Amino acid sequence: MTSLRRRLLVLVAAVLVLAGAATGMVLHAADRADRADRPRSGDPGVGTGTVTLRQKDRLVFVNGTAGPHRKAVASVPSADPGHGRIASDLECVRFYAAAGTGVCLQSNPGVLKQSNRALLLDSDLRTKRTFALAGTPSRARVSPSGRFAAWTVFVSGESYASAFFSTRTSILDTRTMRLTPSLETFSIVLDGKPYRAADVNFWGVTFAADDDTFYATLNTANKTYLVRGSVSGRSVTTLTENVECPSLSPDGTRVAYKKRVLSRTDLWREHVLDLRSLRETPLAERRSVDDQATWLDDDTVVYALPTNGKVGSSDLWSVPADGTGSPRRLITGASSPAPL
């Protein structure tokens, strides 16, 4: 064999070895990417199926587990929330439902800016109406009868806070489709006196069962207040200070909320307020909760907390509403719970 042929054979062999190594690297990278999208050890699997708002004894939420169903509206049995997760085709950033009516807030990145919208849903999660949103989705609620829906978004560019985000909260009458674009148009009674200010913000609406009364957070002059409002009267009245993201109990007697524990910090503690006595009870959850809690029943509240070690993911936790007991993780990889 000539030296030239030997050199050619050595060169071909080297090319094949390098090609094989490169192929192995590509397959290894693809396998790692594929495994990253699969549910991690301890995470539940997600099945596809029919999710409706007519189902009883189900807990509906936004799925946050890795994979193709991330952000999908999903449901689990209320009695066994750690298993049997079924995902729909509907994707939301925030979601809530009651009495066969749902609201889904979506946010899609665009070339120049985000496209944000609210979807009013029927009991089969079909879109009845679509509403453009003025900013990034934050909170969503539906009244117990399904008559009203509310949502809050973060907006920027307000004249009084041009360097910061502010909020805008809307209420929709789902029967007449009359939309109140901003609660800032409602009249305000603060500490017993009519009040007006340029820096007024509202967020975190929760509805009573009478199809008129609601509660929300009012922010003005660097203070937050719990307000009781009337949809028909287009007015709100302050009840007490340092209340954010209220959630009315099913029996209508108490409000769960997050209370700022250190001024000018994003540290909150979950409390329950008795609306008759205005006596507040700190709950057993001692971690900072930046969420609008939901009542599973008259005795238990549930809320989202960031998942340890997973950026952009959250888990649902529950805690007794009377201050006793201890928190327990209800569902991994989930947010925006709505009990049916």
Automatic annotation (TrEMBL):
The keyword Signal applies. Keywords: Signal. Residues 1-29 form the signal peptide. Residues 314-340 are annotated as: Disordered. Pfam families: PD40. InterPro entries: 6-blade_b-propeller_TolB-like, WD40. The keyword Signal applies. This is TolB-like translocation protein. It comes from Streptomyces griseoloalbus.
